[in-house]
Amino acid sequence: MVSCDRLDTALAKHFAWCFAPPGGTVDVAERLRWAREEQAAYGELAPPSGPSASLETEPTAQRGRSLCSELAVAVTSAWALADVEASVAATKRLLSRADRMGTDVVGMEAHPAEAVRILRLAVRHGARMTRRQRDRAAAVAELIPLAHPEVADLLVEVAQAGDRTMAEGILSDEDAAEIVDDGLLVARLADVLDAATSHASRALTIDILRHAKSPHGATLALRRALGLPSFAVRARALHALAAADPVAVTEGDVVAVLRDLVAHPLPDGLELEEQEEDERLLAEALITALEHVQPNQAEVALLDLIDAEHDTLWLDAAWATEALAVSFPATAAVMVDHWLKCARAHERTRALPALRRLPTELAEPRLRLAAGDPVFSVRDAARAQWLDRFGRTCPVALEDLPGVALLRGPPSERFIARLAVMQGRIPDARAAMARALLTEAPDPEALVLLLQLAGDDAESQEPRFGPEGEGWAVTLVTRFGARGVEGLCALAARFPEPESFGWMRRLGDLIERGAISSEGAACVRALAAKHVASEDTGRVDDAMRVLARLGAPIELVDRILALALDDDFGSMEARALLVAWPDRGIDVRLASEMAMSLAERDWVRLRYASAVALERGAPAARVIAHRILEVAVSEPEAAEAAVECARHLRAAGALDDAWAVAALAHPERPIFAVAARAWRGASAIRPALEATLGSRARGGASAVDAAIALLESDPALSPRDRRLAAILESSMPAHRAELVYAMCARGAPLSSLARHLEELLVSPDPNVAGALVGVSVWLTSPKARALLRAVAPRIVDFELRADVEETVGAVALPYWAES
């Protein structure tokens, strides 16, 4: 006999403590309302009260069938309602009733059409329901059987409404997922994808399509979705195309997606968990796609993505290197070499995903090198990969350890035992061993062991810069002397990257501060010379700085000369080194370079050769400089080199003010610009400059040159002078940009420059952009900063945009939209 006792709902408020969680609250009125609805739904099935009541209850299965039959009748009635308000109210009652039925709702399999229609009603009126009611509908969708052809209509309506909660409930049913494989449904969903008005609806539609084993009926729609500026839609679309069998991604798809990843920083994946998942999906899809198609443009795009250094969770430099390993292993191997040479451990870890993907012949030597890394995270991961790939422990050679060459003999057993501690993962043990090793200076074994700690930047913070303490580098030099310097050189040789703020920069700082004496820096000089001699120009800036201090070997003269006469990394340092070159024989080389560059009209090379040769006071260079000034009378391209020549000849007394006045008498000639720039500030030329402010010669360029010279004179022309406004209106963009910069630097009012600034900042002309680099420093007023922030997203030139963003912060036009 089963008990039929039932709690009077009117007394529920007195027993709330029974069903309310500790510390929680319960809306008793709402609980009472639910009870009344339950009584209404189950009234005819509730056991009668009174002494004559039957004590037998209806079997559970029969009760469920009865309830489902009645629910089906109610669904049919609600489905037939034409009045919207009545339909909404009926749908809410149906969902509440179905939710209270619990697992009994499974009996709706006997009423397949009504089972689908109750969910279709829920989707149809979802926008007019509360969050709780929509969750209730999703809970019903998880339990209710779906085995009717109208399931296809239901899925289409869910996709159109963008009802993700309902979709997740429906697709938890295996039978519903099978229905997505219907070719007609895939085609209908493709139409929904094309016609959708929101990215949320498109993303959900693609999620539904991803349940199909073959989404090829929607391939064209998915490919069109790749062009939408929604990261969620794009990630899902590419993942669906890449997961198709066969893969439906084309070379153009991969290239377009990668180029947009380079051009547009991703949404912040830390804001929403869904955005992180979208990024993971896209990363996975691109790897899969690159396993099947390897367009050459993708290689360039992946390298550009590494250079862009966007702040991402998945699509970072490590991922891009891994993607290169999948599609372009030779290029990836070069990138892995770069990462393994980096001074910072977090950059060395970027090589690890790619190492797993590289072919064995490319991976093996790099895994051996990584297995001897001073940092545990790199070393342990490399050894684990070796074990997975070859099935045995990685045979780490001692020569792969930084600084082992300093031992000059086989290591002792004691060294091997201590090495295990220094390569261990217990920081306190490493620190204690390091303190003991410092007392053994200048023992080379102690030095090599300490290098394992110094090379771990997480522990040693080396290479460090600035005034914050001496650091391990200074300690090693102080304790071990010349051997300590050799040890630091060993670390710099093992980890020469990046081109700045690396070990070579640290060595240069120690030399400048006197921590390393010039007499004890032979190994540093040799390492710097090796860097300069290499073809990797990215490493010569700091090396040139070291050689400028210590002197360069004579065999590097050709390399230094080539760098000095070009615009590249280290060129400025190379020119300074040549100016101080002790061998006067270099003057003949420089004069020859001037003559050859003039004959070949190589104006850049001519400018730098003239600057260095004239700075050294080479007599032959002065003769050629006069010839360059003659050429500049009629050839505007020679102006930059001619200005260098004129300045040095004036300083040497070889040109006087009369020459400048004569040149300024012809504003229609390019030589006017040479005289105006070389004699800026000279009072002797002021009348000629004043007379040229109204000139339209050379497209207004001469008036611009005169105005800039007067702005820099003493007394200076006022930046509010009305004549300047007329010059701005009549001059060409490149010359106008020069004048705008000069006026900004001297405090011209923004009202007179705002229109010109906005127009010039967004110009695609590199000459215009080059003239404005640095102008943001002078624009400090709130209105000026507001102007820069508004214009920054439209600046085309990368360098100018970076310069402006450094001043006002990164401001990007919203590209990714998820609404």
Q: How would you describe this protein?
A:
With 819 residues, the chain is an all-alpha fold. The protein contains 47 helices and no strands. Helix 18 (329-340) runs parallel beside helix 21, helix 34 (586-600) runs parallel beside helix 36 and helix 37 (639-651) packs across helix 39. It is flat, with a radius of gyration of 38 Å. The two termini are 59 Å apart. Residues 1-10 and 41-57 have low confidence and may be disordered.
- The DSSP helix count reads 47
Q: For the report, how would you describe the main beta sheet?
A: none
Q: Name the helicity range.
A: 55-70%
Assembly state (oligomeric) = single chain
Mean pLDDT: 87
Low-confidence stretches: 1-10, 41-57
- Category by helix and strand content: mainly alpha
Distance from N terminus to C terminus (CA atoms, Å) equals: 59 Å
Beta-strand proportion: under 5%
By DSSP, the count of extended strands is: 0
Rg value? 38 Å
Estimate the global geometry from the Cα principal axes: flat
Give the arrangement of secondary structure elements.
Blueprint: H1 16-19, H2 28-42, H3 60-80, H4 84-101, H5 112-124, H6 131-143, H7 151-161, H8 164-170, H9 174-179, H10 183-195, H11 199-209, H12 219-225, H13 231-243, H14 251-263, H15 273-290, H16 296-308, H17 317-327, H18 329-340, H19 345-348, H20 351-357, H21 360-371, H22 376-390, H23 413-422, H24 427-438, H25 444-454, H26 457-460, H27 471-480, H28 482-494, H29 503-513, H30 522-533, H31 540-550, H32 557-564, H33 571-579, H34 586-600, H35 603-615, H36 619-632, H37 639-651, H38 657-664, H39 671-678, H40 686-692, H41 701-711, H42 722-730, H43 733-745, H44 754-761, H45 766-772, H46 782-791, H47 798-808
